[in-house]
Amino acid sequence: MARLSINEMTTYRWSFEEDVEHYRAAGLDGIGVWRRKISDFGEERGIDLLSESGLAVSNLLWAGGFTGSDGRTFKESVDDALDALRLAHALRARCLVIYSGPRAGHTHNHARRLLRDALKLLLPAAEGAEVPLAIEPMHPGCADEWTFVDSLDSGLTLCDEFASPWLKLAFDTYHLGWEADLPGRIASIADRIAVVHLGDGRAPPTGDQSRTRLGEGTLPLGEIVAALSRAGYDGFFDVELLGEEIEPVNYHELIEHSRRAFCQLQGQPA
């Protein structure tokens, strides 16, 4: 049965403690944990708080940047990802989201080699932690600062190279929903999806991400969710909303709207 979580990036202004309190009060199944927030709160305290809350961790965001674009060395980025895996294991997270880092002046082949080298080091640790790595492809209109994996096919190609059950996709409807015949492709890839990030938008991004509340954009979310259900996807749908339209909203209202919209997408009464 599909389960709903809210990503902490959606409630950007709330603290980690507020997120846990309000998500639980809203009757949500899970939470998408943002490392920055749980670090500010204190990881050990955060692990205990989540254990007491009953909220499942749908995914942990994020690790990566293996191309050195943020000033870290390759080894520092890999070590940080290993730390993230240890935290994900302690949280019993369903997956750890991975961003490759942008090309950052490298040739495409060299950037891919850096990512492959990182995954070779991380996948044994992911297996040991029993936490899949979830590569997130982003729309090319807003991927420049995050990743060179900018399409569904590029993400799938990477998964094919490793053929590991510990390397999957973070499937973000805002990034991938603009691709041609996406609902028709889902049946063949559903078993490779570790988490679905639910987002909507009025037009493909051309810079910063500009998401709308679910159902207020133009993406075929109903078709995508229905295709995932038919294909047997039973993981989390993690609501990830950010951008100018989302920044000023009341978070309690946004959570309730997201809950109702998710029910409607599933064809269930709100």
Which descriptors apply to this entry?
TIM Barrel, 16% strand, eight-stranded parallel β-barrel, 270 residues, single chain, globular, 10 helices
Give a brief description:
This protein is of the alpha/beta class.
Secondary-structure element string: EHEHHEHEHEHEHHEHEH
Largest sheet: 8 strands, parallel, barrel
Q: Report the span from N to C terminus.
A: 16 Å
Structural class by secondary-structure content: alpha/beta
Return the CATH architecture.
Alpha-Beta Barrel
Strand content: 15-25%
Q: What topology, given as strand order, has the largest sheet?
A: 1-2-3-4-5-6-7-8
Number of strands: 8
For the record, the count of structural domains works out to 1
Nearest-integer average pLDDT: 96
Q: Could you walk me through the main structural features you see in this protein, from its secondary elements to its overall organization?
A:
It is a single chain. With 270 residues, this protein is of the alpha/beta class. The chain is built from ten helices and eight strands. The chain has helices at 16-25, 35-41, 43-53, 74-91, 108-129, 152-162, 173-176, 182-185, 221-230, 251-265, and strands at 3-7, 30-34, 56-64, 96-99, 133-135, 167-172, 193-198, 236-239. Helix 1 packs parallel to helix 3 and helix 4 (74-91) packs parallel to helix 5 (108-129). The mean pLDDT is 96.
